[in-house]
Amino acid sequence: MTFAQRRPAALVASALVAFLVLAAQPVAAEPDTPLPAAFDHAATRYDVPRDLLAALAYAETHLDDHGGEPSTMGGYGMMHLVSNPTAHTLEQAAQLTGLPVDKLRTDTGANVLGGAAVLRAHADGLGLDEAARKDIGRWYQAVAKYGNASSPETARLYADAVYELLGTGFTARGVTVTPQVVTADRGPYAEVPDLSAVAAPGAEYPSASWVAARSSNYTVANRPASRKIDRVVIHVTQGSYAGAISWFQNPGAKVSAHYVIKSSNGAITQMVRHKDVAWHAGNRDYNHRSIGIEHEGFVNNASWFTDAMYRASAALTRHLCDEYGIPKDRKHIIAHKEVPGATHTDPGPHWNWTTYMKYVTGGNSTKPWSTTTDNTTADRFTAGADWRVSTYSDQRLGPDYRFAVPASTADPARYKMKVPSTGRYRVEVRYPAHPGYNSSAPYIVVASGGDKTVYVDQRSGGGVWRSLGTFSLKAGTYDVVGVGRQTSGTGYIIADAVRISRP
């Protein structure tokens, strides 16, 4: 099926009518219902997978309702119900649930119900019957539609972020989603370019992807010949990474930034060329003299500001300063709120300027450390005879990588690493990606509190370092990470490289 194809109108209409009958009676949400119970209730009411609903909310807002204030894109509550000139999921949720718009904006239980109702409506529009709805992987296209993306590429980026959370798991505000095997059925999105791949043609920063902002959201110029670039302005998106990219592609946005950075792993997307003027600062003079960098998250929630984001952003800022002769100081690397006449407060009180500027200037009193083990690292990698050698993909790290088929036993490929001291470490993995590789490859981290398994979709996100999370590791030299074969995911399981680091 291609994006040009559509399901028969009668099927879509009948599905929508059936859903509206189901949802016609208003369901009042208890204002004081604990958050886990709110997700359980909404999932049951609208027959939506509870873990998928929670993962979608976490990807959007980290389960934060922001006191009823809207995001940059006009999204409300932890389910990010949107009301703007091009998207109306808030109003759709009101129609589907019978709840008032004001309640959906400000009441968490109502907002979760509204999100579940909208997601279910998308599933019905796609023709998912009761049996199909029990397979969490079949909801992928409904999730992609929920994100109100401006293009198929950003829709895939959005849905992939939600499904990535199902593989890694998370705990926030009493809501826990355990890591699980999920094969995402991408349907036509499987043929859409994966924006998580780096070094895309067109990017001016070596480790960035390139996704062009809508031409109506920036000014074509000829900097620095026409105007010296002497500032870097730091922003926070007030929304998700995929949402910000999609918004800058939206003709109604009338805003843009040169770069957007992802919270979880520091992935960077460039959207406006350096020579051109992005509309990011709210001040014409500063727009023309600066480069704007947006960071995924919300100013009032510190959980978005990860070390990976700080490091990636600082490296980008250092590169820009070196390229354009911008002094690496707080007079020239500024907050959006420091722009004259600014009405915004980003990056807000949780942004750690001390840490950020140390990374920009190359100083770091906390002595960062990292070590990498590749499948060819001498005496550090072991694997059974069923793990075969391949040089097929140029996304590999080193001369080759290993692959194996799923099995009934773990039979892990193991990465031995030296952990210098007991503490918290970031664990990252790298692998080539291919449609024939595994949809849910199990990575086993030997943590001090017990082994932790994270499931990774190796069909996408290849050729870059992907974070499995931060874990408590004990000191010593031992097999820190294994790649297992015991999974119901489909496709070859890949073992390439592992990196652990301490901020």
UniProtKB/TrEMBL annotation:
The lineage of its organism: Bacteria, Bacillati, Actinomycetota, Actinomycetes, Streptosporangiales. It comes from Planobispora rosea. SUPFAM superfamilies: Lysozyme-like, N-acetylmuramoyl-L-alanine amidase-like. GO terms for biological process: cell wall organization; peptidoglycan catabolic process; peptidoglycan turnover. Pfam families: Amidase_2 (PF01510), Golvesin_C (PF25275). The keyword Magnesium does not apply. Keywords: Cell wall biogenesis/degradation, Hydrolase, Signal. This is N-acetylmuramoyl-L-alanine amidase. Residues 218-348 form the N-acetylmuramoyl-L-alanine amidase domain. It is an enzyme of class 3 (hydrolase). It catalyses: Hydrolyzes the link between N-acetylmuramoyl residues and L-amino acid residues in certain cell-wall glycopeptides. The keyword Cell inner membrane does not apply. Residues 1-23 form the signal peptide. Its EC number is 3.5.1.28. GO terms for molecular function: N-acetylmuramoyl-L-alanine amidase activity.
